[in-house]
Amino acid sequence: MGGPARIRWVAQRHEVSAMCNLLLSWEHVAQFLAPDGTQLLGGRVTRETVRTPGGATFDANAYCSARGSTLRYTAVSHWERFVLPEPGGGGRMLTIPGTGFRHCDGIARRTFLQVGGLALGGLSLPQLLQAEDHAGSGRSHKSVIMVFLTGGPPHQDMVDLKPQAPAEYRGEFSPIRSNVPGIDVCEHLPLLAQQIDRLAVIRTLVGSEGRHAAFQCLHGHPVQNQPPGGWPCFGAAVSKLQGPVNREIPPSISLQPRMGGQPWSDPGQPGFAGMKHAPFAPNASGTQDLVLDGMNAAKLSDRRSLLDRLDHLRRTLDKSDAVDGMDTYYRQAFDILTSGRLATALDVEQEDPAVRERYGRGSKEPAGYGDAGWLRNEDFLVARRLVEAGARVVTLSFGRWDWHGQPHGTNFDNARDHLPVLDQALSALLDDLWQRGLQDDVSVVVWGEFGRTPLINKGGGRDHWPRVGCALLAGGGMRSGLVVGATNARAEHPVERPVHFQEIFATLYHNLGLNVDHMTINDLTGRPQYLVDHGKYQPLPELV
Amino acid sequence: MTFPLLSLPHNNAVYSVAFAGDSELLACGCLDKTITLWELPSGKQRKRLSGHSEAICELVFPPDGTSLLSASLDKTLRMWDLESGAVKATLSGGHQAYLTSMSAASDCRLAVTGAHDNLVIVWDIAGGRQRGELKGHTDRINAVAMSPDGKQIASGGHEKLVRLWETEKLQAVKDLGPHPAAIQCLAFSPDGKTLAAGDDAGTLLLWNVETGSKEKIPTGHERTVKSLAFSPDGTRLASGGNDTTVRIYDVDDRREIDVLKAHRNSVYDVAFAPDGTQLASAGFDRTAHVWKL
């Protein structure tokens, strides 16, 4: 195993003849195969697309951490089936008015990209709709919001402070009392301190594989030794087993932005659940200016004009026979893409300004020194809007918590920067969920890939500490106002009730109504795979 | 209580501040790899300079009034043209690890840098080349200072001592210390006779460069003294700390005379305006404040 290998390739074979074609065929799959043919990691491949007279050129980046692996590139399976007739060949041409330059087919460049970007999120929707029918789902709507604290938060500086420890261990922060007697938290979490009665504090999260990646927090399993096809992420598994709640909102949505640290920006892999269950990842695909930037009036105007154009597209399609004969699910996909409900859910500008202020705005600038995600409070609000609209699983990443110390700020400089922002955003989310009566329906989990070293290094930082970490759980009908587990006097290791990552996953599956003792998804060999290690991990009895 | 005249928001932690010679321009270097130029007293953003690939740890305005010298963790120094925002010169190739500190003589013909490679490098800024390396430190360097006349250099870091060097001969002269903890900041007085040093234990010492004697200034900093600057007339000293405060001292009386509170995180840099009437401070709280003294 070595460092990340960057592979770049260009595929020029696929010819794009119409907007419709783009909407339906924007999905490409990158699979990395080990020398023995097993899949290591997958990645969605969608970036700039440039139309050329000879067809469309797809220029994409993909990453894999294993040397010697090969890349297998495939287009979505229905590509060929739905190619519309060439312009001038007697077929119908679909054109969307736009303001940018026009390609030879008359499609404006800006429109082309933006609609294509939205279609990225909807690409798997036809299949998702298919899955819905097969699963007979939509009967209930429990949901999960997962907050990934990218890089590994310092457990001992957040919810497991050790004021009696020597200075080189205890750090700079003091504990404050919460609204639950006996549970103290960091002084920089004053708002959450007043909502500890809504939270379950896990002080003994164990089982980290020690890898700097979102994978384990999203999939529940280590990267190594995956079954054929790879583990599906939590959202993909839920999508596979429960399908969408409604026809307009994908069941699994990842708000992770693109990051310099590729393993951190993983939106979650579909694995053997199948690409159709890949999370909709609007921020990863460059569509921020479409739906997620609520701070710029000019972009808002663009977004509205885009919706206008989408309406126009739908009217055009309705009047035409261009989509007749298409798979019913593709027609439904157009309904999703053009209904605006998804875009509406993603658009925080439609939210009560007072609620937005309560969450705080945050920033789209990369936090820390630029290789991780942003500290964007509004993602918490977007997550609430999405689960309310019908998403079953929404994941988001928040900030950069990999605080090794100078010269990139000490652990405590960074904590003073991040903790108050997390405090505001998370406490606002809890308030919001409770005020809307969603506390039994929506589960919230906040965690990172590992904890941090008890001994402060000479640069004022804390390094990686897979031996123990922390997690916060709320909602979902779980018991709260309690602490699970205890660490030793220096927060080095559990001395009481270690809680494994998979116990958290089992609890979240339980909250969604999925029994980890019985539910399975077949891997690519057809072998049923349980959601967590069968017989080993159960939902946390302290909480459910 | 003193309030800031201006509070200038940034996208990320502010690591460095510097006033231009006419005090009408403030440069702020950030963790996000950019330098922002602010007009004073309006606080209007004039320009944002991009090009470094890491945080900007130090900024110096040369006396020509048309340039800005920046140092970055990316191991390079860059000379910027203020009018166009273009890079006029890049000095690189010396350090093998994070460049953490830079200081220049008042004429800006010479500068010195220190880095996590334990190396101190003297740069001929006018000639655009390296003048020489100062070897001997055995641990990371956090701070360097060059006397205004360019003849002396001080460096310090995790060894907990200050090493004085003679620029011309590129030789160590003496060691000052030890400090109780790692050195974090150094500053020569305008006459070059006194060296102020701050450390991770919250200690602030004034070293007599010639005799090697020291005097401790009682400071209210609870933790690390992160940044230091003498006023142009040498009568006052400012410090910024990890306790989020900026503190002003009367140098002759060796006492703290003011505490400036507005930052919400560590204060990474302080700088007096050339006329001595204002002070700028850079915070990890993504803010630079300008204070009237």
Helix content of chain A: 25-40%
What is the CATH H-level superfamily of the largest domain in chain A?
Alkaline Phosphatase, subunit A
Radius of gyration of chain B: 17 Å
Strand content of chain B: over 45%
The quaternary structure here is heterodimer
Q: Radius of gyration of chain A, rounded?
A: 23 Å
Put simply, the count of helices of chain B is 0
- Based on CA inertia axes, which overall geometry of chain A fits? globular
Q: In total, how many domains does the architecture of chain A comprise?
A: 2
Strand order of the largest sheet of chain B: 1-28-27-26
> What percentage of amino acids of chain A are in beta strands?
15-25%
Structure characteristics:
heterodimer; A: 544 residues; alpha/beta; 2 domains; 8-stranded mixed beta sheet; 3-stranded antiparallel beta sheet; 15 helices; disordered N terminus; B: 293 residues; mainly beta; Methylamine Dehydrogenase, Chain H; 4-stranded antiparallel beta sheet; 28 strands; 0% helix
Characterization of this structure:
The complex is a heterodimer of chains A (544) and B (293). By secondary structure, chain A is an alpha/beta fold. Chain A has 2 domains: 5-123, no CATH class; 143-287 and 348-530, Alkaline Phosphatase, subunit A. Helix content of chain A is 28%, strand content 18%. Chain A has 15 helices and 22 strands. In chain A, strands 7, 10, 11, 12, 13, 16, 17 and 20 form an 8-stranded mixed sheet that branches. In chain A, strands 1-5-4 form a 3-stranded antiparallel sheet, with no helix packed on it. Chain A has a 3-stranded antiparallel sheet with strand order 3-2-6, with no helix packed on it. In chain A, a hairpin with a 2-residue loop joins strand 4 and strand 5. In chain A, helix 3 (125-135) packs across helix 7 and helix 3 crosses helix 10 (328-339). The longest helix of chain A has 25 residues, at 411-435. Chain A is globular and about 55 Å long. The model of chain A is unreliable at 1-35, 37-139, 286-301 and 320-330 (pLDDT under 50). Chain B is mostly beta strands and 293 residues long. Chain B has a single domain, classed as YVTN repeat-like/Quinoprotein amine dehydrogenase (Methylamine Dehydrogenase, Chain H). Helix content of chain B is 0%, strand content 55%. Chain B has strands at 4-9, 14-19, 25-30, 34-39, 44-50, 56-60, 67-72, 77-81, 87-91, 99-104, 110-115, 120-124, 129-134, 141-146, 152-157, 162-166, 171-176, 183-188, 194-199, 204-208, 214-216, 225-230, 236-241, 245-250, 255-261, 267-272, 278-283, 287-292. In chain B, the strands form 7 sheets. Chain B has a 4-stranded antiparallel sheet with strand order 1-28-27-26, with no helix packed on it. A 4-stranded antiparallel sheet of chain B has the order 2-3-4-5, with no helix packed on it. The mean pLDDT of chain B is 97. The A-B interface holds A 172, 363, 365-370, 406-410, 412-414, 416-417, 420, 458-460 and B 11-13, 31-33, 54-55, 57, 73, 98, 100, 116, 140, 142, 158, 182, 200, 223-224, 242, 264-266, 284-286.
